[in-house]
Amino acid sequence: MDIKNLFFSYHAKEPFIAIDELKISEGKITTIIGPNGCGKSTLLALIAQQLTYTAGEIYIEQQNISRLSRKELAKKLAIVYQQNEAPEQYTIRDLVKVGRYPYRKGLNSLSADDLTAIDKAIELTGLVALQDQRLAELSGGQRQRAWIALALAQETQYLLLDEPTTYLDLHHQFEILDCIEKLNKNANMTIIMVLHDLNQAFQYSDEVIVMSKGKIIKSGQPTVTMSEELIKGIFGINVQIIEDIEKNKHILPLRK
Ligand SMILES: Nc1ncnc2c1ncn2[C@@H]1O[C@H](COP(=O)(O)OP(=O)(O)OP(=O)(O)O)[C@@H](O)[C@H]1O
């Protein structure tokens, strides 16, 4: 994905989001990090064409995606928001069926392709046994996986996730991140997500994008990009980057 000269403002004055050039690699996991209010969700929403930018272009495979119809775009790119709402009486399967809307014509019944995509999405998210359970009866982690399954049923190359681990306990946070990693590795999906946990960004991302005040400060491989100095500069906290016996790096926040 290529983003060029992207400008956006919620208010008419100066642009809030200002990005000259940003490339997001296909087939990789890219995580956007940065302090509260720096524009992470706004950037995701701009990529997903949920907000109209004042200038700029976003290309997927040389195609300017602002020119695509909603259905065409929904075949290329799916987004899972931080908070998602659906009728509580829906079962997981009902919800996942919604992901087939870009492929459906009118109110026709589901095609064989639709059913295959729905089954695959439910399987990839580990929800086969729970598929007839109502959303109201699910835990936060199961519910999050159900929304990811809806996005998968869209059969897109790109999956965008806005803070997919919010409100989940540590076990379920890792469950979701492992599920996302599997989608990337096994289904070759390009993942663009927002995370607050810097260690999780470190461990699960091929690339990170560091934002501050609507701008991209740095991007690249996490271990190269996220230095102690950069984290101090962006978040105003002292950290130490340490290595465990398996040579994995971890960010250790220090009290001032
Ligand atoms: N609909 C809106 N109208 C006006 N201002 C908005 C709107 N949505 C967000 N903002 C403002 O834009 C800025 C960026 O918000 P955004 O949600 O993109 O940040 P973020 O980095 O995702 O933050 P967080 O980490 O807190 O989720 C904030 O100052 C926010 O108040």
TrEMBL record:
One of its GO terms (molecular function) is ATP hydrolysis activity. It is a peripheral membrane protein. It comes from the Bacteria. Pfam families: ABC_tran. Keywords: ATP-binding, Cell membrane, Ion transport, Iron, Iron transport, Membrane, Nucleotide-binding, Transport. GO terms for biological process: iron ion transport. Residues 1-238 form the ABC transporter domain. GO terms for cellular component: plasma membrane. The keyword Membrane applies. It is found in: Cell membrane. This is Iron ABC transporter ATP-binding protein. It comes from Kurthia sibirica. The lineage of its organism: Bacteria, Bacillati, Bacillota, Bacilli, Bacillales.
